[in-house]
């Protein structure tokens, strides 16, 4: 995650918005004597919110963890040629 100053963010805001949307990255904007903020695309923000919502349920979290472990171990997945 890139960190830039408030001044640089202000001077390059359009470019920063394009980059965070195109690259699915976040940019931290630092401010003097203030807490930093993060710029991210709405698409990435919504995905993060949905993930956090789903992980609130212990049952969902366990199911997701199991699915990831199975995928990484290549279990229960069949490859198909198109």
**The CATH superfamily title of the largest domain:** YefM-like domain
- Please outline the major beta sheet: 3 strands, mixed
Q: If classified by CATH, what would the architecture of the largest domain be?
A: 3-Layer(aba) Sandwich
- Rg to the nearest angstrom? 19 Å
Query: How much of the sequence is in beta strands?
Result: 15-25%
InterPro entries: Antitoxin_Phd/YefM, phD/YefM_antitoxin, YefM-like_sf
Function: Antitoxin component of a type II toxin-antitoxin (TA) system.
Organism: Rickettsia asiatica
Protein name: Antitoxin
Structural description of this entry:
This protein has 82 residues and is α+β, with helices and mostly antiparallel strands. The chain has two domains: 39 residues, 3-Layer(aba) Sandwich (YefM-like fold); 30 residues. Helix content is 56%, strand content 18%. Strands 1-2-3 form a three-stranded mixed β-sheet.
Topology of helices and strands:
Layout: E1 2-5, H1 6-11, H2 13-23, E2 27-31, E3 34-39, H3 42-55, H4 58-72
Parallel strand pairs: 1-2
Antiparallel strand pairs: 2-3
Pfam family, one: PhdYeFM_antitox
Function: Antitoxin component of a type II toxin-antitoxin (TA) system.
Organism: Rickettsia asiatica
Q: Summarize this, please?
A:
This protein has 82 residues and is an alpha+beta fold.
Characteristic key phrases:
82 residues, alpha+beta, 4 helices, phD/YefM_antitoxin, Antitoxin_Phd/YefM, YefM-like_sf, YefM-like fold, single chain, 3-stranded mixed sheet, Antitoxin, 56% helix
């Amino acid at each position: 995650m890139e960190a830039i100053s408030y001044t640089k963010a202000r001077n390059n805001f359009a470019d920063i918005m394009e980059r965070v949307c195109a690259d699915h990255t976040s940019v931290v904007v630092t401010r003097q004597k203030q807490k930093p903020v993060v710029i991210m695309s709405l698409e990435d923000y919504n995905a993060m919110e949905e993930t956090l919502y789903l992980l609130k349920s212990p049952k969902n979290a366990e199911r997701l963890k199991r699915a990831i472990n199975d995928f990484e171990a290549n279990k229960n997945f069949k490859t198909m040629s198109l």
